[in-house]
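request received
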Amino acid sequence: MYKYLHIYNSPNLSGSVEISGAKNAALPLIASTILSKNEVKLLNVPEVADVKTLLKLFKYLGADYNFENNKLKINASTIKNTTAVYEIVKTMRASILVLGPLLARFNEAKVSLPGGCAIGARPVDLHLKALELMGADISIESGYIHARGRLKGATIIFDKVTVTGSENIIMAAALAKGKSRLINVAKEPEVIELCEILKKAGIDIEGIGSDELTITGSEGELLNFPEIHIIPDRIEAGTYLTAGAITNSNIKIKNIIPEHIESVIVKLSQMGFPIEIRENEVEIFPAKKIYPVNIITSEYPGFPTDMQAQLMAVATQAEGVSTIEERLFENRFMHVPELNRLGANIQIQGKIATIKGPSKLIGADVMATDLRASSALVLAGLIAEGETKVHRIYHLFRGYEKLLDKFSKIGAKMELLNEPNP
Ligand SMILES: CC(=O)N[C@H]1[C@@H](OP(=O)(O)OP(=O)(O)OC[C@H]2O[C@@H](n3ccc(=O)[nH]c3=O)[C@H](O)[C@@H]2O)O[C@H](CO)[C@@H](O)[C@@H]1O
Ligand SMILES: C=C(OP(=O)(O)O)C(=O)O
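response:
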């Protein structure tokens, strides 16, 4: 039975939210266990749909695991199958993360092409080009990427900064023969955590945290992984921070690494929200006046595309004209018509959205189209007069753990109800 999220006007939030482990760190780290000879224990793993999908894929490949209370024990040494099937890959693009490690370990891998999705074309050409430079023979057959060959170290210059592309090639280089130089690598905290774990597992990696890495591969020898503690989810943290902002409330966001959301804090501060930064938490206070803002999305440490929709929801309440330019994905404004249905005044011209505020929002039926678009609609629903029904809400559960519990703890009123016409 399909569900929708019924949100009741909740203009005053208070209290604190504990942030879960990062989905986008957990996914590559789980994929990396393909390189491990031992069972790996991962802590602070978020129980979200994407993690469960990747685990389903691991089971299909032949791995064993146990996942309870955010603790995951996974043994990928039993993997025999090297084909990631369409039926699983189609539900989650990040399944492409098994390509690099499977190929590096088995000298062969077949992964269904992830295809386009809601936010843009999202090709994987840079992943494939890099693997070819490392000696892989790659063909596309019946919708599958078929990669074969023994990987050897290479110099790779990424034409664009790609997060999962960098992660795939870092994992491949860890087991390849010889040294790889990766230039223009992504510097997202999730990429850094992957490098640090591989280093602890015995791989020589230089340049961690910079955009150039030198990795000396183990020549096919499997690694001895340490216990892994997943870093806090900076996008979940940013989302709850924007919940404080849109409702102009005082809330604390706990269990985070504030540096990871610096660009979001800077923009909310510019909008007039006082924010106190402490060691593992930030606290947002009501603004006297909400100022408009100009945002351009970019790679870390720039403003994250994964926070663009949420900031746009907040900008609907600013006194004046804000602009948001989306530079990473060509189709990541799907929340705009839905926010406008609630009463926002947003226009799009190419990559730029212009938001005229403040707008009085009034509850309506709206459609979630992707993960972060869904969160923008939830935020808008908090301040919309009356009741807002967010349909296709399953997108949200790909990346937000215990969303209803966390929102209800800070005073938001919402419930999951059955769609009347499924
Ligand atoms: C699971 C995960 O971590 N997902 C994140 C990851 O996605 P993902 O890793 O898929 O995003 P990328 O960093 O690869 O994409 C950045 C840009 O490069 C382009 N590109 C990418 C690869 C390629 O082979 N060719 C190519 O042209 C993409 O279309 C996009 O325009 O980073 C994005 C950008 O921060 C985030 O929005 C996603 O939440
Ligand atoms: C776009 C996202 O995820 P994915 O790359 O898995 O689609 C996201 O986390 O906002």
